[in-house]
């Protein structure tokens, strides 16, 4: 983890192509590359919120690239959902941790209220810890500057070794800070108890507060890294969840409109089919009626033709009989 964090820091300081030669082709930036920090692209990196506090997460092992973040913001919403889900999952785990700390703080207050609190004599220890913390911070800052110089000169391994030593010193410094915070809480509670003041637990970061304390101390707490960091995490999670809810509602509305359009088209097509069917039936009936009428006319014409032929035949027979009768009468007169 320390080596990867040091490499990520060097990437941010010197660029991700720091080990390439002068003639090497630079690798194009793409926001889906696994080397880039997903949390930084979605909103912000939680590792940057609690630096040098009791909740310090250490250096982020991934690269924070503004160009990749710009590409991410321009990408489609559907392709970014997985990154948002991972951010929400990690942020929620941190918020769950502070919720458990808040609950333990309330239980501790309840227990301390039931028992008599002895007077603490830990001021000297707190002062010693503070001096040691100051010395460690100076060493860490010096090592970081030296690591940056080494990285600029191209001595990557030496720079990574210095960053690893920085991480060890940071762990020692964090241990001393936690001791001082514990001493501070005890002293604060003892002071409040001596002054007959009540204490409470901050519902955002879990810190112990004196009820009715001076406004300047309250403002200092509200502007502190831990309080602002956890408040920012909670706001970011709520914002993403609200956007996701709005997105789902819009998608559902679009699907409902599409279903309605499909139903309207189906009904319209059904009406067209019915109309075409009626028109076809009407055409069939009209054609059938025309066929029957034509058939009747044909039969009528045939009857007329037959009657005309019969009439002609009878007329021809009568004419023939008349000729034969006139011929017979003439012959009879000649015989006489």
List keywords for this structure.
single chain, 336 residues, mainly alpha, 2 strands, 76% helix
Give the termini separation.
Answer: 160 Å
How many distinct folded domains?
Answer: 1
List segments where confidence is low: pLDDT < 50 over at least 5 consecutive residues. none
Order of helices and strands: HHHHHHEEHH
Structural class: mainly alpha
Strand content: under 5%
Estimate the helix proportion, in percent: over 70%
Mean pLDDT: 80
Q: Could you tell me the radius of gyration in angstroms? A: 50 Å
**What is the overall silhouette?**
elongated
* Quaternary structure state of the chains depicted: single chain
Extended strand count = 2
Characterize the biggest β-sheet: 2 strands, antiparallel
**What's the total helix number?**
8
Strand order of the largest sheet: 1-2
Biased composition (Basic and acidic residues): 245-291
GO molecular function: mRNA binding
Region (Disordered): 245-336
Protein name: Luc7-like protein 3
